[in-house]
Amino acid sequence: MSELLTSRILAPKELSDHEFSDIFSLFSEYFYSNKDIFQRDLLKKDWIILLEKSENQSIKGFTSIGYLDLEYCGSKLRTVFSGDTIIDRRFWNTFELSKQWIQTVLERCKLPDVPMYWLLLSSGYRTYRFLPTFYKEFYPRFDQKTPEKIQELKNILAKKIYGDNYRQENGVVQFKRGASPLIRGMAKVEPGRLNDPHVAFFLEKNPSFANGDELVCITEIKDGNYTRAGQRMLLR
Q1: Which residues contact 123 (CB under 8 A, 6 or more apart)?
Q2: Do 195 and 142 contact (CB within 8 A), yes or no?
Q3: How far apart are CA 169 and CA 9, in angstroms?
Q4: pLDDT, tens digit, 9 for 90 and up, residues 49-68
Q5: Do 81 and 119 meet the contact criterion of CB atoms below 8 Å apart?
């Protein structure tokens, strides 16, 4: 699409009733969802980014961000984690939401001299593909075993954030209540996509994604870990 999109950041509690209705309606076009559970999860996050058409501020995408601080191996670290995320498919070729996400994380969540990780739940291969697009090192991945320390950290974080919904044996989150599986058409994987080793790996690791299972992934947000595309996201 050639239409100009802009982004806006606010705390979830600052959303108007109309804005909340719009984002839930957009989300429901792509995921089976429950309004109460959707709202409860959203209010647990610290920030929400709205992607809007500039001429009328109609919402065409959004994502929410939360963060968690803890000590690991004697050092402090911070983890950011994403909530429900969607972009109107007519705007899938825009990078505005990705740009605003990394800028928001670096400006509002990053602490000096404190390592910061992104714990990402991938309910579909499109979400998983954000990792190889923007980051050099991320896990799990098809071409490298997850280092033991990173695996341990991922397990600790996933348990703290998602509790008993996290299945450590297969590295996925299976929500006992409130799973939001992709609607039927969106869960379809075109045969040609299987030629992409990242997509094939995601489907192998999360075979029940169509039922709402979410693969837990991790990457460190730091200089030197961005791909060229990731570096462009830092430029505004």
Answers
A1: 31, 180, 181, 182, 209, 212, 213, 214, 215
A2: no
A3: 36
A4: 999 987 777 999 999 999 99
A5: yes
Q: The dihedral of CA 128, 134, 138, 142: what is its sign? A: positive
Q: What does the block give as tokens for 188? A: 């379809």
Q: Which residues contact 189 (CB under 8 A, 6 or more apart)?
A: 125, 199, 203
CA-nearest of 216, 105, 84 to 162 is 216
Q: Are 85 and 127 in contact (CB under 8 A)?
A: yes
* 152 CB-near residues (< 8 Å, 6+ apart): none
Q: What length is written for the chain?
A: 236
Alpha helices in 31-147 (DSSP H): 35-43, 96-104, 125-128, 130-134
Please list, in sequence order, all residues whose beta carbon lies within 8 angstroms of the beta carbon of residue 70, skipping any fewer than 6 positions away. 76, 77, 79, 156, 157, 160
pLDDT in tens, 197-226: 999 999 999 999 888 899 999 999 999 999
| 5-233: in CATH 3.40.630.30 | yes
> What gap in Å lies between CA 228 and CA 144, rounded to an integer?
21
